[in-house]
Amino acid sequence: MSLLSASSASLRPDVKSKHAPNNHHHSHFKAPKLPGRPKAITTGMSLLRNVKAFLTPSGSQAHLSGGGLDGAFTKAKTETDLFPATDPAVDGEECLRDCDGCTVHYPAKFKIDEDDTLYGHVKGWETHLIVGTGKTDWVRDVTDEKASVMQAVGRVGVDRKNGKIMLSASNMPNCAEGYDGGRRAEGEEEGSDCLLLPAWTLIEDVKPSQVDVLMKEVVEKSVTNSSPLGGRKALPLGNGESNGHAAVEDDAVAEPDLTGLRIGGANEPSTPSEGTQTPQDLSRPHEQQEESTTLAPSSISSITFKTRPIPHSYLILMCSHKTRDARCGQSAPLLRKEFERILRPMGLYRDLHDDRPGGVGLYFINHVGGHKYSANVMIYRRESRARNHLDASNGISNGALNGQPAITQNQTANPVAEDSTRDGEAVQLIWLARVRPEDCENIIRYTILQGKLVKPQRQLRGGFDRERGLLSW
To answer: Bias regions of kind Polar residues — which residues (predicted)?
Structure first.
């Protein structure tokens, strides 16, 4: 490595030379003068290199270009800078205990890396496109799936005008039938429903030949992970909030008190029929809508594609890519079973064909990286001003209180929707790893429903909070 290269690397904060010593003595290193160059030229070149290094954005900075207002988005240095951690004094002793009534467990030989530091190593992206395939496993690289939307995305590229796309295949059903109710004609191109985040938009029946139009007409016009939520200026770090969400200016709404909530354990009831009232609204602090509520049209308009809001209030994405790592093929079905066991009695479970508003949508996706930290679970939380107020006659007010019975499948919560027609975007992504079935209960209680971390150092890989203007990358 030349002295010039070493000197340049030392001036770039985002470039580390593998040959340079990584200690405090490095700051005292004085590069020798290059032979045959006058001092004025050498000084001028050094100045130019410093200016170039100052003006060249690092990887994380590049993702923020054109993002937050007045440079509002900030890289959160630690796990708890990004999301609050649970506190037994506030959240109860339950936050310290794993589920002891789990019905499933990983195999005895299920081994993962327990030593690496997880937080801060996820590479940033701006939009997340999730493609329905009807499958739970795929070829090693999903862009090699023949005649698929993923293959078409690979051809047109994931680097777009509004930033990089994270592409995921999922087990959402593909469109074997056309939306007119009839079967597709023989030889007709098969389409896929797609989810676009953080826009919280479902795009119907996208065909591979339409992907270039999809990018220009929908994806590049959508909000991104570094877009301020609803055009509002994000609050900076250090605003005095602790163990809860920082409120956005002019939009301060108290989170429901779910302290002491006991979840799950009851026999799973059948999926409620349409119009049947359930206790689902106990746990919908961000999307309280009665079953009859019709969602307003998506904020993303398109000439080519039919779009609408994703009906769910929360999304759980679990890697099931067995071809890439057998552990993911084992963990995803077991976690889904445990999540379902807990969510069903609460009225929050939504299967692949359940479009009722609210609830938690559970999907399998392909490789996201870090299989040695299996299981990887990505949680998207939707923005909404709607908040739940449960009928006190059920013995519950804004969540179950300590000492009161848990809600059972026979109890009914009576929600009062506030501004329930307001569309919401994804306000947060919480990317967890090393998730085990015994973690699921507290992940639902605290992370999904309240946006808090139960095991921040052990489990958080990264994410964003668009309400507070924070990113992990």
So the answer is: 268-281, 291-300
What is the enclosing helix (H) or strand (E) of 457? helix 456-459
CA–CA separation, 452 and 432 (whole Å): 12
DSSP state of 278: -
Which of 423, 119, 124, 85 shows the shortest CA–CA distance to 287? Answer: 423
**CB of 228 within 8 A of CB of 68?**
yes
Report DSSP letters for 186-200, one per residue: TTPPPEEEEEEETTT
Collapsing DSSP to helix, strand or coil, 379 comes out as strand
CA 127 to CA 227: how far, in whole Å?
10
- The pLDDT value recorded for residue 366 is 98
Based on its alpha-carbon atoms, the radius of gyration of the chain, rounded to whole angstroms, reads: 24
pLDDT of residue 302: 78
The parts of the chain modelled with pLDDT lower than 70 are 1-71, 176-186, 230-301, 384-423
The tokens describing 131, both together, are 């493609």
Find the length of the chain: 473
pTM: 0.69
Where exactly are the structural domains of the chain? 3-55, 74-121+239-471, 127-221
